[in-house]
Amino acid sequence: MATPLKPSDRKPQEGAIERPPIRLLPPIDQCIAAAEHALGDYHLSRNYLKYLARQAQSAVREAIVRDGGEVPQSRAAMLELVTAQVRQAFDRDRPPLTAVVNATGVVLHTNLGRAQLAEEAIEAVTLAARWPANLEYDLASGGRGDRDSLIEQDLCLLTGAEAATVVNNNAAAVLLALTALAAGREVVVSRGELIEIGGSFRIPDVMAQSGARLVEVGATNRTHPRDFSAAIGPETALLMKVHPSNYRIVGFTSQVSLAELAAIGRERNIEVIEDLGSGALIDLSAYGLPREPLVGESIEAGAALVTFSGDKLLGGPQAGIVVGRRALIDRLKAHPLKRALRCDKLTLAALSATLRIYLRTRDLAGAIPTLRLLTRTVEELDRLAIEARELLTVRLGDEFQIAIIDSQCEIGSGAQPTEQLPSRALAISHPALNPDSIAAIFRRARPPIIGRINDGMFQLDMRAVNDPALFAADFPARLD
Ligand SMILES: *Cc1c(COP(=O)(O)O)cnc(C)c1O
Fold first, then answer.
1. Which residue's C-alpha comes closest to atom 1 of ligand 1?
2. How far is the CA of 31 from the centre of ligand 1 (A)?
3. What does pLDDT average to over the chain?
4. What's the 307 CA to ligand 1 centre distance in angstroms?
5. Strand partners of residue 461
């Protein structure tokens, strides 16, 4: 611990007033000592104190440059200013990952972490985080176990597949499947399905990375079964179908169905795999939502392997799930890449708990937050909008106009990109602020509120807002 600084004991330097104040800026060592003195009770690490001191020093330097005569004219008073800035920097510093309000109108927003976990999944994560767990330990034999066994049986029950494995995300699942089954050989894919998903997942690139050679067939808008048949040769390892997820080809189109592809595969003795992307475990149309293909349907239609995400429509943690025939799953599990891509205990805890909800709960919309948000009625969203508007009016004052408007929102993450869900939003405007500035003010609130700009207006869509009470946020003091 450094000697406590007593700024008041110091005599202002002779002639300080005449000197340019920038020369009075305390050197970094004194700033660090001031930080240590001010925040000694917190026992902060040395590097963190240095970081706070540097921030404070440069804030004061900026103030000198900006305000010149307004800043203190003595070294001691300057040091006090630094100390105040250190405290401010410390108080303002928040953990880098923080909860935000998703008012974007995209329920499964990749940049906002996609699915919110169910309560049971959160409890399972906490348990696995806090205690030792039988992650790879067979309680019956006392020997080594397989972490996939924690989820395999449930995935098989839910999809009708023989076997299952899981890795970190669906991109990893596709990479693993292609590498383990087709490296050095050919994989045939329709040109209409060579998709790019946000965040640089592109089928041709993943294919190249796996060492498999992509054979494109058909045209962008139309591919026929004969295109696949003609492309099969001695080097063909797989036929692959990809769910186009985030786009649709409309008009004069035709794609080869999975059943047709499977028939060709059976005839020519070639396996067919499908990347389903979102992959629903239940029929969403039963909940009044647009229908997404079911994983179980793909298995039934003859896919040897199906890959899909854990944190899209399934509503679980980020994970890449592969279900399918035992022999192929075993080859994936035995591949060295599986070891590099395997999930940790927290993911497996959350995924297992989520799958068990699907098996043991009738009221899925009540238990799985993603489904709960997607199945909210417009009347409910209307009530949320009214409550949110009241809270925001109090927070923001009269200068802001807040109107409740009809809105359209999306499921997100590539599920049904052309299908919009009806929703309600608040449109927020201000006579002196443009939509971007209003958006920035909301991002600086605590918790940060993430809206969207639509039709030249800043909007807060209610569909994915868990609780309008969140709009009682602390807004930055200066609103301009
Ligand atoms: C979303 C998606 C992926 C990528 O899945 P991640 O879990 O984000 O890695 C791959 N393929 C399709 C078809 C998708 O929709």
1. 277
2. 49
3. 92
4. 9
5. 425
What's the gap in Å between 274 CA and the centre of ligand 1? 12
- Report domain extents, the chain: 21-92, 101-109+374-471, 119-363
Of the listed ranges 2-6, 91-95, 183-187, the one predicted with least confidence: 2-6
Q: Which atom of ligand 1 is nearest to the CA of 413?
A: 1
Q: Which atom of ligand 1 lies nearest, measured to the CA of 278?
A: 15
What pLDDT, on a 0 to 100 scale, did the predictor assign at position 63?
86
Q: How far apart are CA 169 and CA 351, in angstroms?
A: 12
Ligand 1 center–CA 197 separation, angstroms = 7
Higher pLDDT, 67 or 130: 130
Question: What distance in angstroms lies between residue 10's CA and the mean position of ligand 1's atoms?
Answer: 63
Class of domain 119-363 as given by CATH: alpha beta
User: Is the separation of the CB atoms in 276 and 306 below 8 Å?
Assistant: yes
Cβ of 256 below 6 Å from ligand 1: no
What topology does CATH give the domain 101-109+374-471?
Answer: Aspartate Aminotransferase, domain 1 (3.90.1150)
Under DSSP, the state recorded for 355 is H
Averaged pLDDT for residues 275-284: 93
Reported as a single tens digit per residue, the pLDDT across 71-108 is 788 889 999 999 999 999 999 898 999 999 999 999 99
Three-class DSSP category at 228: helix
- Determine the average pLDDT of the residues in 266-291: 94
412 lines ligand 1 (CB under 6 A): no
- Ligand 1 pocket, 60 CB below 6 A? no
CB 169 within 8 A of CB 176: no
Asked if 178 and 212 touch (Cβ cutoff 8 Å), the reply is yes
Report d(CA 189, CA 218) in Å as an integer.
9
